[in-house]
């Protein structure tokens, strides 16, 4: 029974977080900001205010596909946010610019996350293969190696949290100081940013739970030996 509850939780938690962010985004993507600026203009304004004239802004396909690319120094905004003047679009654009500011200032957690990317990718791709083979062949060493790889991926998820929360805080501060949103719009903007942050919290929580479960299974496997 506990096994069923566990798997229900790791499925429900991410789904709930995704529903929250989609609900908040859908609601506030229909509310225009008082400044009337579209996402591209919001991003350009904040970038220029911080001396990031070299950082480009591009439109990218897809819904909520917005991101900052540190390799090309480019903020990419989904079409709806790029062209739209909604509170949600402004919040998302400002958040991605927050990452660009972090990059400029060499924000420690962002640097650490970038350093973890290659190992985290390996961990995500191969950890379960090693763990599965280890369990099937009763080779505890392979299981342990798989858990180590997974642990690196989990650390990546955890380090992502301060990076995302900091980018959202920077976004709020920049939007307020630049006059992009007014006082009465701050609460709605914060709702969009907080909902988006929930997806990262949910992903980290599920990753930690799964890692703990595998460690307990591995410990039990060794105790039986």
UniProtKB/TrEMBL annotation:
Domain of life: Bacteria
Keyword terms: Membrane, Transmembrane, Transmembrane helix
InterPro entries: Zn_peptidase_2
Transmembrane intervals: 128-156, 192-218
PANTHER family: MEMBRANE PROTEASE YUGP-RELATED
Record protein name field: Zinc metallopeptidase
């Amino acid at each position: 029974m506990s096994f069923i509850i566990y798997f229900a939780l790791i499925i429900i938690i991410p789904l709930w977080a995704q529903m929250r962010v989609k609900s908040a985004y859908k609601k506030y993507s229909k509310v225009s900001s008082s400044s009337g600026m579209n996402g591209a203009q919001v991003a350009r304004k904040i970038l220029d205010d911080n001396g990031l004239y070299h950082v480009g802004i591009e439109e990218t396909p897809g819904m909520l596909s917005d991101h900052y690319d540190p390799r090309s120094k480019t903020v990419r905004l989904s079409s709806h946010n790029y062209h739209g003047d909604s509170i949600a679009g402004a919040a998302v654009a400002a958040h991605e610019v927050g990452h660009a500011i972090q990059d400029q200032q060499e924000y420690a957690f962002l640097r650490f996350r970038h350093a973890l990317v290659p190992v985290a990718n390996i961990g995500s791709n191969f950890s379960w293969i090693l763990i599965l083979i280890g369990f099937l062949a009763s080779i505890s060493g392979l299981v342990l190696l798989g858990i180590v790889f997974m642990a690196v991926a989990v650390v990546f998820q955890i380090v992502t949290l301060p990076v995302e929360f900091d980018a959202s805080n920077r976004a709020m501060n920049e939007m307020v100081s630049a006059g992009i949103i007014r006082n009465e719009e701050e609460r709605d903007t914060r709702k969009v940013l907080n909902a988006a942050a929930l997806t990262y919290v949910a992903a980290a929580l599920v990753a930690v739970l799964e890692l703990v479960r595998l460690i307990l299974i591995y410990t039990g496997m060794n105790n039986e030996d």
